[in-house]
Amino acid sequence: MVERSSSVSYLARSQPVQVVAVASGKGGVGKTSVSVNLGVAMARRGHETMLFDADLGLANVGVLLGLQSRHDLSHVMEGRVGLEEILIDGPAGLKIVPGASGISRMASLSRPEQAGLVRAFSDLPMPIDFLLVDTAAGISEDVVFFARAAQDVLLVVCDEPASLMDAYALIKVLNKEHGVSHFNFVANMVPSAQQGRRLYSKLLCVTDRFLDIVLSYLGTIPIDEQLRKAVQHQRAVTDLYPRSRSAIAFDELARTLEARPRTYLPSGHPEFFLERMVQAGAGCG
Ligand SMILES: Nc1ncnc2c1ncn2[C@@H]1O[C@H](COP(=O)(O)OP(=O)(O)OP(=O)(O)O)[C@@H](O)[C@H]1O
Predict the structure, then answer these.
(1) What is the mean pLDDT, run by run of 10 residues, along the chain of 285 residues?
(2) For a tag site, which of 31, 95, 147, 196 has the least CB within 10 Å?
(3) In which order are the strands placed within the sheet that holds 49-53?
(4) Which residues span the domain enclosing 116?
């Protein structure tokens, strides 16, 4: 019997990679905390999960988890190291692609740089089921770039007028200027799931009135002192306090995400995401 190489079996996988861009509009609402803990929860549920730290200026994920890598994406694009060499192992087998502080604007990478990035992802020998992309706060070109390329946009919103307003502004720009029409809502730092639903209804009321989009409720992460403590210990709450309120909510969120129908892409290979990114980038600016 001929043994198949890991990359061949990788290409033969029937499940497509699902790319989820995590965005927020306003900063400080817990976008990175949601990305990290959802990533760990997905990995713990048995999905091959990768978290791309695309908050490129700040490279927050590593800080939140107390993990460091000697190299980052900029070294991969320069051809100094392979993507596999920069991956950081997070809790439960979550793979983290460290952000590159040297790459300040993904949307304005040169063609050879973009091609280098696509190649780097296509050379990865391991399968990926979910690729979460932790984008920067605000409505920069980069956020648009990732949101357009991903199959799902997950919006993290907390109960502050500025968070709701900025989330609405981001939805409006992505829809009116870039044709994104489906968004997923996650409430964070609210006292209860009921309050999370209420926040969702508030935003839905405005989007239904002024925009032609679908806004789906995905879940609520409650405000949780144990999450704060976990941040202080540079650990994921899903790892340090798996029985905490927020960790249980992250597991529920992961269940909801895994139960959703996947958007079909030709293979489970993240290079397709990068190719979509490059195409999206061609239309930016
Ligand atoms: N559910 C929660 N319960 C309690 N505290 C939380 C929760 N979510 C986030 N926080 C707190 O909010 C802080 C900011 O979170 P985080 O860094 O994830 O936000 P962010 O939106 O990614 O910020 P930035 O826009 O600056 O990247 C965390 O350090 C944590 O202390």
Answers:
(1) 37 63 92 96 96 72 74 78 87 88 62 68 77 86 81 95 96 93 97 98 97 97 98 94 98 95 53 57 39
(2) 95
(3) 88-89, 95-97, 49-53, 130-134, 18-23, 152-157, 182-190, 214-222
(4) 15-278
Tell me the pTM. Answer: 0.86
| Minimum CA distance residue for ligand 1 atom 9 | 30
Asked whether the CA dihedral 153, 157, 207, 166 is positive or negative, the reply is: negative
What is the CATH classification number for the domain harbouring 91? 3.40.50.300
CA of 216 from ligand 1 middle (Å) equals 22
Question: Residue 109 domain-assigned?
Answer: yes
The pLDDT value given to residue 108? 67
Q: 6 lies in a domain?
A: no
- Which atom of ligand 1 has the smallest separation from the CA of 137? 25
Mutation test of ligand 1: which of 24, 32, 33 has the most ligand atoms closer than 8 Å to its C-beta? Answer: 33
Confidence (pLDDT) at 76: 79
Predicted pLDDT at 157: 97
The set of protein residues with a Cβ atom below 6 angstroms from ligand 1 is 24, 27-33, 55, 60, 137, 188-189, 221, 223-224, 227-228, 231, 246
In a domain, 181, yes or no: yes
Distance 37 CA to ligand 1 centre (A): 11
**How many domains is the chain built from?**
1
**Residue 123 domain flag:** yes
Q: Is the CB of residue 71 less than 8 Å from the CB of residue 79?
A: no
